[in-house]
């Protein structure tokens, strides 16, 4: 499933980006493109609405964390809302990981996050 983004300017300089689908290795560039444009517009606040995001990989998580860092550096507001349980699980895991490299590769990290999201959804087989 591809990633779709919908950007709404809530107040001048404050944007909400609603994500639908999957934020992964194949789709992360779409979010990067959208946010790069907003940062170039001197956005003062960004909110990601993840209500319709069904999956996030380590690459997707990286994009979100880089966006949070970029907003912090420009002293802007940043928020993530409406996380589905499997997405929240990935963020919870990432927050507890030590700073050093824990996974041998992106593929290994993605396999781990995929398994945790399936577990959070109650899936234990290979079906998506």
Distance separating the two termini: 10 Å
Strand order of the largest sheet: 1-2-3-4
- Bin the strand percentage: 25-35%
Record field, number of beta strands:
4
Secondary-structure content class: alpha/beta
String of helices and strands: EEHEHEHH
Largest sheet: 4 strands, mixed
> DSSP helix count?
4
Judging from the principal axes of the Cα atoms, what is the shape? globular
Mean pLDDT: 85
Q: Helicity level, as a percent range?
A: 40-55%
Q: Which stretches are low in confidence, meaning pLDDT under 50 for 5 or more residues running?
A: none
Radius of gyration, Cα only, in angstroms? 15 Å
Can you walk through the features of this model?
By secondary structure, this protein is α/β, with parallel strands linked by helices. Helices cover 45% and strands 28% of the residues. It has helices at 28-40, 58-73, 85-96, 106-121; strands at 3-11, 14-23, 45-56, 77-81. The protein has a four-stranded mixed β-sheet with strand order 1-2-3-4. Helix 2 (58-73) links the parallel strand 3 and strand 4. Helix 1 packs parallel to helix 2 (58-73) and helix 3 (85-96) packs across helix 4. The longest helix has 16 residues, at 58-73. The mean pLDDT is 85.
